Amino acid sequence: MAQERHAKQDADYQPLYIQDQVDDHQRQHQHGDFPRPEQTKNPIASTEYLSSSQLSYSEPYTPAHYPRSQKSSSIFSATGYLLFLVVVSTLLFVFTSWFVQAAFSGEVGVRVSQAFGKLLKWEVGDALAVLRVSQGVLSACTTLALMNAFELLQWALASRDRGISVPSFLGLSPTTAPWGVAMIALSKASRLPERLWGLIRVALLAAIWLAGIVIFVRASVMTAYDTGYTYDVTAGVGQFNGSYVPRYLEKIKAVEPSYRFQIVPSTILAWSYSLVWNSLHVISGTPIDCKDCDAYLLTGGVIMTTPWLPEGYDRYPLVNIDKAPATQVQFKRGMDSSDGFTDENCSTYGSSGNITLGMKVCINKSKASPGSYVAGLYVCSNGTANNACSQPGSLPNLTTTMSVYGLSAAAISARSNFSIMSAQQSHLSILNPNIDLEGYKAALDWILDFNATNLPPTSAIAEHFWNAQDQISSPYWSSELTRTFQSLLTFPLWFFNPNNYGNPDLEVRDVVQNLPPQHYVKASLTRPFTKIVLDKGMFVAFAVLEGLSILFIWALLIWLWITKPRLPQITSYPLVDFAFKAKEPGYTGEGFGPRRAGIYEADGQELRRRMRDVRVTLRRDEGASM
């Protein structure tokens, strides 16, 4: 009975107007200044209550037409929030990228730090906090902008006459979870455009998420330096110059011309047998062409700079010396069987008195390693006679293959004790195959010939090896003796270079002008601070991922401005927007569309199958201004 009663009521019901008439009539009352009459079943309202002043008979009613400028302004107002988000995201992206380069890179970071003073000289925690906040806000703003852009896109596509398919609408909707979007993209029931929209949304969301992670992958910690004062110096260690040896020996001989023995200052003896482990002058280097070699980088340190260090600036405990000439001496233990020595290559130092002490040192060019040199130290157990070891046969010995390289290096030394803290050597190194062996052997004779200097045998350098004959034959215990031998071989190369006092023209406190130009560099008083260095490749990945997301949003925003689609008033409640502003094309009833059996019980897969051919378009209500 109830169904029959409802059916009869529907049959008796007659609409006042068809939709076009309702729209025209309603617009007429909206544009007039008279009250709207109550609706009656008569399709033509009575006009008896109107005065003549309220009537106009000039022209029949013409529907209102909105100028293009009003339509343009509506699209700009509809996209204002998106414009704000994408501008903020772009500015944050630029700031984050700049800040990473300024505060989290290596040499570039130091230069920017010097340029901006104390602005970027932050410790690890402060800089990391700023980066994390800016990157987090960037990800949040980009995500919000992307969600808003997809929401505008879904309504722009739905405003077309054909509307948009339900899977595409759901794939773009901000209410659809990422997993649901992925299911649409992977579903066999989805068409290619529906898959593409789903994949684009998932990919861009993943890109924003990954960008916040990859930027910190492979990060490392380094020490940077805050500069307090910079000044000009001469620094570095150049190549060995054999012509300095006789000139220097004449210079020190002139100190006491009547003294008939050779003068060797005690500091020279002290340096000569301990040079390679003296942090004032030498630091361990990276072997250039062999893994098991001992490499020593001769930078000169701060102790060989002229002028002396400036006073003051107590907050800056270090001295950074720019890249200056350096020498690297590399030792490989032992020598090839094809290499050897003749008597001309060797010098013997010893005594034949009560203390039978002596040793023989040999130096020659290597045949097995062209450009390198072989050296040997042989202990004369029973002393020497006729410039040779008294004991025939095998002698306790140390042998090595020595290579000398010229390169450049920047050194950092402590102001308090002049120790070299670290050094950065250049990758370009040049092997020196033309050492003046005559001058080199003359320098060795000067420090090793204790008879020429009238030193007691027990006070000579030879005593150190003669008293450790058992240790020389042991690979373990010979380590210290090997370092001493390497120091003796390195000393002439270090002392008789243009920027050391083996050069008779060098002054103690004043800068001389006749050094090779590479020795004139700058030194800075600095203080260290720790900073994080982000990997360059990971930063590029961050920039690409974040940049693509922002670029997509800009492209979509510009497309909206150009096409000017008829957008509804979009609120912050997308479920309400869908319920009241969307419908199936051609449907005029309440709700989204005709009831479809089984939708209530359908799961996600069944829902995608049933809604595959359903489309979404905008509902145009009365009074809606487009």
Automatic annotation (TrEMBL):
<keyword id="KW-0812">Transmembrane</keyword>
<keyword id="KW-1133">Transmembrane helix</keyword>
<keyword id="KW-0472">Membrane</keyword>
<feature type="transmembrane region" description="Helical">
    <location>
        <begin position="537"/>
        <end position="562"/>
    </location>
</feature>
<feature type="transmembrane region" description="Helical">
    <location>
        <begin position="78"/>
        <end position="100"/>
    </location>
</feature>
<feature type="transmembrane region" description="Helical">
    <location>
        <begin position="169"/>
        <end position="186"/>
    </location>
</feature>
<feature type="compositionally biased region" description="Basic and acidic residues">
    <location>
        <begin position="22"/>
        <end position="39"/>
    </location>
</feature>
<protein>
    <submittedName>
        <fullName>Uncharacterized protein</fullName>
    </submittedName>
</protein>
<feature type="transmembrane region" description="Helical">
    <location>
        <begin position="198"/>
        <end position="217"/>
    </location>
</feature>
<feature type="region of interest" description="Disordered">
    <location>
        <begin position="1"/>
        <end position="43"/>
    </location>
</feature>
<feature type="compositionally biased region" description="Basic and acidic residues">
    <location>
        <begin position="1"/>
        <end position="11"/>
    </location>
</feature>
<feature type="transmembrane region" description="Helical">
    <location>
        <begin position="137"/>
        <end position="157"/>
    </location>
</feature>
